[in-house]
Write a structure and sequence with these properties.
Rossmann fold; five-stranded parallel β-sheet; 12 helices; 60% helix; elongated; transcription regulation
């Protein structure tokens, strides 16, 4: 679940948002509320939410200024602005500072909320995948793994995109080589099939997420490239000898 902070000075608006979130069946949970921008900034620092839903006009600090200061401090949470028709110019300004979107306060309904938050979920997932790749493969200047330059390009591509759909056809097209030749070359030089290499990369990344985050097994599976929960559990156990939940429990005992 993505952690969500509401920053809104009107109590009825906060209550309305909570009700819509409860009905919307979206992967977001409200972890806090603030009644003005200054309090919102303090809670962003303390709670580290994934997304902030902020009104534009509020006492002490408006929503656009809150977004500016958050970005200035290097905090990466996404922003969705609450706006009225008369405030649309301010909403446009917020988009220029990196807000993911806006919600019209007076006409907000379930459909609009779901559409906007689905977009935010997509952005957060892409951000997580980029951080994941950077964490596991931070050193792109390391010694090349093989003596074949095109194969090394493939390996680098896999390391940067393993959480996406990576197929033999796509990889072969990437280096402009025959797919069968690429498959045989990979196995010969690496001592492992390309499919198993990708699976292993995904499982190693999943281990990190299981150890260092509280994300669910389903969320982690999707983040590292598995769309099907059962398949993720099967492949994880094949490479580690444990299910994801068993691995997480074992790591907590060790730590």
């Amino acid at each position: 679940m993505w952690r969500t902070l509401i920053v809104e000075d009107e109590q009825y608006a906060r209550a309305s948002l909570r009700k819509l979130f409860a009905k919307a069946d979206i992967p977001f949970e409200i972890v806090g509320e603030a009644v003005n921008g200054e309090e919102g900034l303090q809670l962003i620092r303390a709670l580290q939410p994934d997304v902030v839903i902020s009104d534009i006009f509020m006492p002490l600090m408006d929503g656009v200024r809150l977004l500016q200061l958050t970005r200035k401090e290097g905090l990466e949470c996404r922003f969705v602005m609450l706006t009225a028709v008369s405030e649309f110019e301010y909403a446009r300004q917020a988009l220029e500072y990196g807000a993911s979107g806006y919600l019209m306060k007076l006409s907000l309904d379930l459909k609009e909320l779901k559409q906007t938050m689905d977009k935010v979920a997509g952005e957060l997932t892409r951000m997580d995948k980029l951080r994941l790749a950077d964490k596991w493969f931070p050193d792109k200047t390391a010694q090349e793994p093989t003596d074949h330059p095109e194969l090394n390009r493939l390996i680098t591509y896999i390391e940067e995109h393993f959480a996406e759909e990576v197929t033999l056809k796509r990889l072969a097209e990437y280096v402009r080589m025959d797919a069968s030749y690429v498959s045989d070359l990979f196995k010969k030089k690496m001592g492992i099939t390309m499919t198993h290499f990708i699976q292993n990369r995904r499982v190693q990344a999943a281990k990190m997420l299981l150890t260092e985050t509280e994300k669910t097994v389903s969320e982690i599976g999707r983040l590292v490239g598995f769309e099907n929960d059962n398949y993720f559990i099967k492949i994880f156990k094949r490479w580690s000898g444990l299910t994801p939940n068993e691995y997480r429990k074992e790591q907590k005992i060790v730590l």
